[in-house]
UniProtKB/TrEMBL annotation:
Domain of life: Bacteria
GO biological process: base-excision repair
Gene Ontology terms for molecular function: alkylbase DNA N-glycosylase activity; DNA binding
Protein EC: 3.2.2.-
CDD domains, per the entry: AAG (cd00540)
InterPro entries: Formyl_transferase-like_C_sf, MPG, MPG_sf
Protein family per UniProt: Belongs to the DNA glycosylase MPG family.
Name of the protein in its database record: Putative 3-methyladenine DNA glycosylase
Organism: Ornithinibacillus caprae
Keywords: DNA damage, DNA repair, Glycosidase, Hydrolase
Taxonomic placement: Bacteria, Bacillati, Bacillota, Bacilli, Bacillales
Length: 196
């Protein structure tokens, strides 16, 4: 484990999903692999409120092999594949209240040389400025599904609290009825690694 990074405890993940989505901003997402440790400051998140949120995979309590972990305790890892990209979410809400927070972007912190080997980019700000980009750079895969963020190899540590938080509509969910207009996306203003 990165010597000065300690994973956040379960109480942190037990807060309401919208609050968690904001609280994750500035925290450090860490992944340990055989290549070494990579990490980044979380700069963008999206909240998905389960049963009543048409944009959520667990809308109407849809329980499938893919969404099963969303019904577990908060602080679990929910990964899924979209357009060949692996996306990573933090399970939130109480047990059997399937909610989650998508980590949309991070600002590279440690292990940048490893990230650049995995994702060679011409513009550095493109390295982790999107949910599929950050997982490839950090080495987060579908094998992380169902694990806990409370301990390595994939965990979240306390970082630096942002001075301001911006809020707006989520991205890429046009076919989700009125849910497409919910202001459940949060980001650190003016950070170059925010996805859009």
């Amino acid at each position: 484990m990165d010597w000065h990074l300690q994973s956040l405890d379960v109480d942190f993940y037990s807060q309401p999903t919208i609050d968690l989505a904001k609280s994750l901003l500035g925290c450090i997402l860490v992944k340990e692999t055989k290549d070494g440790i990579t990490s980044g400051f979380i700069v963008e998140t999206e909240a998905y409120l389960g049963e009543y949120d048409q944009a959520a995979h667990s809308y109407r309590n849809r329980r499938t092999k893919r969404t099963e972990i969303m019904f577990d305790q908060p602080g679990m890892v929910y990964t899924y594949t979209m357009h060949t990209h692996c996306l990573v979410n933090v399970v939130s809400g109480k047990v059997n209240q399937p909610e989650a927070v998508l980590i949309r972007a991070v600002e590279p912190y440690r292990g940048i040389h490893i990230m650049l080997q995995r994702r060679p980019v011409k513009k550095f700000q493109n390295l982790t400025s999107g949910p599929g980009k950050l997982t490839k750079a950090l080495g987060i895969t579908m094998e992380d599904y169902g694990q806990s963020f409370l301990e390595p190899p994939l965990y979240i540590a306390k970082g630096k609290k942002p001075g301001k938080i911006a809020q707006g509509k989520r991205i890429g969910i046009d076919n989700s009825g009125e849910a497409r207009d919910y202001p459940y996306r949060f980001w650190i203003p003016n950070n170059p690694f925010v996805s859009k």
